[in-house]
């Protein structure tokens, strides 16, 4: 008795069922649902009662950071005013002690010599200001 060829036999002879289109559709659906899902982060807030003090005072004085510029041949500027090296050191010492200043800004440009930066750094350290922040000076000055 001869067996009749069925569709399953034809698929088996052709190499099996091709699942690639089915997998493509499944992955496309997964991506669609992921992108279509509205992902919301819930923000939660907690009320906090902060205790107050009757003896506290608001801080009104912000520390002023001195801005130093070297203008060549021993001429310096401190916050836009021309000073000598001795005046600069004296003013920085006062600022370090009175206003608790611990940092200074040094304005630099392309013409600033390295030795002048070292000299300003030495003056600041002698005055008690250990932290120096170089800042590029604007060209139109």
List keywords for this structure.
141 residues, alpha/beta, Nucleotidyltransferase, domain 5, 37% helix
Describe the protein.
Helices cover 37% and strands 18% of the residues. The chain starts with 6 loop residues before the first helix and ends in a 5-residue tail after the last strand. It has a domain at 67-136: Nucleotidyltransferase, domain 5 (2-Layer Sandwich). The protein is an alpha/beta fold and 141 residues long. Strands 3-2-1-4-5 form a five-stranded mixed beta sheet. Helix 3 (85-98) crosses helix 4. The radius of gyration is 37 Å and the shape is elongated. The protein has four helices and five strands.
Helix content, binned percent: 25-40%
CATH class of the domain at 67-136: Alpha Beta
Q: At CATH's second level, what is the architecture of the domain at 67-136?
A: 2-Layer Sandwich
Helix/strand structural class: alpha/beta
Question: How far do the termini sit from each other?
Answer: 107 Å
Shape: elongated
Largest sheet, strands/sense/barrel: 5 strands, mixed
**How confident overall, as mean pLDDT?**
77
Order of helices and strands: HHEEEHEHE
Number of strands: 5
Q: What is Rg?
A: 37 Å
Major sheet: order of its strands?
3-2-1-4-5
Number of helices: 4
Percent strand: 15-25%
CATH fold category name of the domain at 67-136: Nucleotidyltransferase, domain 5
